[in-house]
Amino acid sequence: MRFLDRLKRVLEDRHALSGINAKRPDPGAQSGVTLSPEAAAKSSSASTTDYDREQWRRKLRRAVELYPRTQAEFANLEADEKALDLDPDWALACKREEFAWAIRRIVADRVVTPSEHDRLDEIRELLNLSEEDAAAILHGVVSDAETVFDGNIEGV
């Protein structure tokens, strides 16, 4: 129970004044890019609807969560991104968010194995994220995890 109490305290400290609900936080907000479909509509094609953008995000989330079974779906996501004329900054922020969640799932057991490193690198390549960008996301997530777990993450 000590872990859950500490986790609750850390999360309350971080989000006490921001009013964040139980949904995933918007990591694009730090870089000035919002991930809401409505905001992305301003710079996307007029024919692209909020529904289209939300469906693309759901496909992206599913592809990353179920990788490697969904490896073939990444090509479709890239084609859909171009066909829907999605805002590149918005799409990149979505990809970064999903990559961060993939890292969170991997570090949850406090150990990152070589096969998990390979998996993250493959996901990074499929999402077309630069190594520097991915490393920054990795270090941020690992730093947060070490704070929450009150210890080091092995294998990072």
Structure, described:
This protein is mostly helical. The protein has helices spanning 2-15, 28-31, 37-40, 50-65, 73-83, 88-107, 114-126, 131-149. The two termini are 26 Å apart. Residues 17-22 have low confidence and may be disordered. Helix 4 (50-65) runs antiparallel to helix 5 and helix 6 crosses helix 8. It contains eight helices and no strands. It is 65% helix and 0% strand. The chain has one domain.
Share of helix, binned: 55-70%
Principal-axis shape equals globular
User: Which spans have pLDDT < 50 for at least 5 consecutive residues?
Assistant: 17-22
Global mean pLDDT:
84
Distance between the termini: 26 Å
Query: Helix segment count?
Result: 8
- Write the element-wise H/E pattern from the N-terminal end onward: HHHHHHHH
Q: Provide the β-strand percentage band.
A: under 5%
Characterize the biggest β-sheet: none
> What structural class do the secondary elements suggest?
mainly alpha
Quaternary state of the chains: single chain
Rg is 17 Å
Structurally, how many domains make up the residues?
A: 1
Q: What is the number of E strands?
A: 0
